[in-house]
Design a protein that fits this description.
By secondary structure, the protein is an alpha/beta fold. It is built from ten helices and nine strands.
Length: 257
């Protein structure tokens, strides 16, 4: 555990790096959203304890699995629709307002970066987004609230009004490929940034976890703020094993000194 003076000096050094940077890229994982009331669905007692994950091929081919998938998404929507951005999300919004943030890469599907006011064009949702529901055939898209409000699964799962194809929340399911367009954009950001700030990710899920090393190899500083240790702690310039709100409180306090 860092001594108080060590934390303060590290915070000061991080703040200096932010001040000097002009091409910051954010990288976020589940840990940034827990403080907004989004639970860890992998933990015991979570959604995935009640509803086993449904693979993409199962969704397409098995009517019962498709219903199971929608049941889980309906349960998940209750938390997502009520969640609001926290100080972690607003931190990146402020960097954007200061013309420092060039992109935000997230592993989250909760849409809280969009809700923070961050422009959609700079957000890369590697695992998709729960804010939209899309047809897997013709890609017709509608806002999720239009689908989930009044959704009665006893009448069947949602069907596309354009082509009668299968509708599915625009998130990446198990067994479904990430969008190459998103991966390419994320790689471009990692290659061009001068500082990458990782918040709330354990950096173990590939291919997302390969992005911070790319930034580091191309001369960027790397900052990691997360409660648990990560495989990249040893190569990062700044590591803070703190809750997001506690880290930002320290950052704000030091800024006033």
């Amino acid at each position: 555990m860092m001594e108080h003076t060590d934390i303060n000096s590290s915070i000061d050094a991080f703040k200096s790096a932010v001040d000097k940077s002009r091409k910051i890229v954010g990288f976020t994982g589940a840990g940034i959203s827990t403080e907004s009331g989004i639970p860890d669905y992998r933990s015991k007692g979570g959604i995935w304890d009640k509803f086993q994950p449904v693979y993409f091929e199962e969704f397409v081919s098995d009517e019962k699995k498709r219903l199971l998938y929608w049941q889980r998404k309906q349960e998940l929507w209750k938390d997502l629709s009520n969640a609001t951005p926290n100080t972690g999300h607003m931190f990146f919004k402020e960097l954007y307002d200061e013309s420092k943030l060039t992109g935000l890469i997230t592993q989250n599907i909760d849409g809280l970066h969009e809700k923070s006011g961050l422009v959609k064009e700079i957000i890369i949702n590697l695992h998709g987004t729960s804010l939209e529901v899309a047809c897997i055939d013709c890609e017709f898209t509608v806002p999720s609230e239009d689908v989930f409000e009044g959704l009665n699964l006893e009448e069947g799962v949602p069907i596309c009004q354009k082509c009668n194809g299968l509708m599915k929340p625009a998130t990446i399911s198990f067994g479904q490929q990430l969008r190459m367009e998103d991966l390419d954009k994320a790689n471009e950001l990692a290659n061009s940034c001068d500082l990458m700030i990782v918040i709330g990710s354990t950096l173990v899920v590939q291919p997302a976890s390969s992005l911070p090393p790319i930034a580091k190899e191309n001369g960027a500083h790397l900052a990691i703020i997360t409660l648990s240790e990560t495989p990249l702690d040893s190569c990062a310039d700044f590591v803070f094993h703190l809750k997001v709100e506690d880290f930002l409180r320290l950052l704000s306090h030091n800024s006033l000194l």
